[in-house]
UniProtKB/TrEMBL annotation:
Superkingdom classification of source: Eukaryota
Domain F-box: 4-50
Gene that this sequence comes from: 6040205
SUPFAM superfamilies membership: F-box domain, RNI-like
InterPro entries assigned: F-box-like_dom_sf, F-box_dom, LRR_dom_sf
GO biological process: positive regulation of protein ubiquitination
Gene3D superfamilies: 1.20.1280.50, Ribonuclease Inhibitor
Entry protein name: F-box domain-containing protein
Length: 448
């Protein structure tokens, strides 16, 4: 460029090509040079997705996003305080504006709690109408657009929204473009809740569906038979309560499913399933399940029979085992994991793909942790525990910690009880604290 030339007059095409070589943050800095450079950055290629973090202090930022970017983004995530009525309604304002977007193909709602506050009583007609107007109608509008078709919809584990899953599927004129659906929930009261009715036939035309999450209550042999026709890569199932009339899923149904879908991974999550955890090994787990990830969250007890079941039947599939409870005195004094054959050690020995073990709320024997680290070595990417046998002086723990670190190929130590998340502290833990932890963990908790 000759002397005296104005950098602010570079053609938009030239700036676009230059911006493509920069990462996101450098591109934003470069766009601050002048108005012309700033205007060039607002293109779909530079803004694939936006996270709307709903809060009063973010109102100006979110308004700017809606005004400048809502018409060009292909993916949107809306996180909001679902216990705050003002924030809930702010979130729905954003949702309504996004429902008119001509580019959006992916929508993820992320309420911060299991509860979604409304002016009416839980499960009342007033609440139902409120939710329908503020959330269901704009989501149905997005799904009902002829172009572009919505490819991804995640309801963020919201119990009340997942009750409308059938409405959403019925409103979709082109289900063959759906690639990811998040219809699993976290219940406000795991022992008493309404059941979602989804007919398996609604999924028959979802011929591109690769990721699906559902509650165990909706599943049965017939449902699994329909899902085996889809190109699923991940099937996530949430277990809460177990209805006496629920038929369960048979071994034969899982065997047929796996024969036709050898690529599918099953992620099974128990959430405050106080009764189901006791019969996990006898009523829920089946030998032919393609189980790759198990999460058991705040079920208030550990099931060693289920742990032994994992090592016996999922030698070729299991990648991650997470068992999380808050710390209670009974856990420390009575539920130390010591058996003739520690099930965690057996799991580490037998399960060839195991990459992650997380145990909170229970005291573990350091000798067994060393055994696990030796058996898995550097293939074990995550070994996370918060309590080791308290009867051993701290000075005697150092050799164990050093040995585990050597075997894993990374610096290792049990988590410091003083810095644990509040949900993992001593009982009682409030429902809001627990639920917020659960939702974060379900979304981001697994490292594998």
């Amino acid at each position: 460029m000759s002397k005296g030339s104005n950098w602010g007059e570079l053609p938009a095409l030239v700036l676009t090509n230059l911006f493509q070589y920069l990462d996101y943050h450098d591109r934003l800095q470069a766009s601050a040079v002048c108005w012309h450079w700033r205007s060039v950055i607002f293109q779909p290629r530079f803004f694939k997705g936006i996270h709307f973090d709903v809060a009063r202090e973010n109102n100006k930022k979110n308004s700017f996003f809606l005004q400048s970017l809502a018409h060009i983004i292909s993916a949107a995530k809306i996180s909001f305080d679902s216990c705050n009525l003002y924030d809930v309604e702010l979130a729905t304002e954003i949702l309504y504006k996004l429902s008119k977007s001509s580019c959006l193909s992916s929508l993820s709602l992320q309420p911060k709690y299991a509860t979604l506050v409304t002016p009416g009583r839980f499960y009342s007609e007033e609440e139902w109408n409120y939710i329908y107007k503020l959330f269901v109608e704009p989501i149905k509008a997005l799904l009902g657009r002829p172009n572009p078709p919505l490819k991804e919809l995640d309801l963020g584990c919201s119990e009340i929204l997942t009750l409308h899953a059938a409405d959403f599927l019925n409103s979709c004129p082109r289900p063959q473009f759906l690639q990811r659906l998040g219809f699993a929930s976290v219940k406000q009261d795991p022992s008493h809740y309404a059941l979602s009715a989804i007919e398996p036939t609604l999924f028959e035309k979802c011929q591109a569906l690769q990721q699906l999450s559902l509650d165990y209550d909706t599943m049965c042999d017939e449902f699994l038979q329909t899902l085996q026709l889809l190109p699923l890569r991940r099937l996530t199932i949430h277990v809460h309560g177990l209805d006496e009339e629920h038929p369960g899923i048979s071994e034969g149904a899982w065997a047929t499913f796996c024969a036709k879908n050898p690529q599918t991974e099953l992620h099974l999550t128990l959430v405050c399933a106080y009764e189901a955890v006791d019969i996990l090994h006898s009523h829920i787990l089946r030998p032919s399940m393609p189980l790759s990830h198990l999460k058991v969250l705040f079920c208030e007890r550990i099931n060693c029979d289920a742990l032994e079941y994992l090592s016996r039947y999922y030698k070729e599939t299991l990648k991650s085992m997470i068992w999380v409870d808050s710390m209670e005195y009974r856990n420390i004094m009575e539920l130390v994991l010591r058996t003739e054959q520690d099930p965690l050690v057996m799991m580490a020995w037998r399960c060839k793909k195991l990459e992650e073990i997380v145990i909170h709320g229970y005291v573990l024997d350091p000798h067994n942790l060393v055994g696990i680290s030796r058996l898995r070595g550097r293939d074990l990417k995550v070994l996370e525990v918060s309590r080791i046998d308290l009867s051993m002086p701290s000075v005697m723990m150092t050799p164990f910690i050093e040995e585990i670190s050597t075997q894993l190929g990374q610096k290792w130590a049990p988590l410091d009880p003083k810095t644990l998340p509040a949900a993992l502290g001593f009982y009682p833990v409030s429902d809001d604290v627990r639920d917020q932890y659960i939702l974060r963990y379900i979304r981001n908790g697994s490292s594998t």
